[in-house]
Specification:
Layout (H helix, E strand, L loop, with lengths): L2 H11 L4 H27 L10
Helix pairs in contact: 1-2
Length: 54
């Protein structure tokens, strides 16, 4: 069961905890976004200084 499913299950069992579940999803999404940005930057910032530009 992934984090989204866990949050939905917690909400269905206890709707009063929706704000806590929502906060957990927000934090998870931010972490995923940061990791994605780091991977993209690392992939596309590799510069080859030995290559001559003509």
């Amino acid at each position: 069961m992934n984090l989204h499913e866990q949050c939905l299950l917690k909400y269905l069992q206890n709707p009063d905890e929706l704000s806590h579940s929502t906060e957990a999803l927000i934090q998870n999404n931010l972490a995923l976004e940061e990791q994605f940005v780091i991977n993209v930057v690392a992939k596309y910032t590799h510069i080859n200084y030995n290559r001559k530009h003509v």
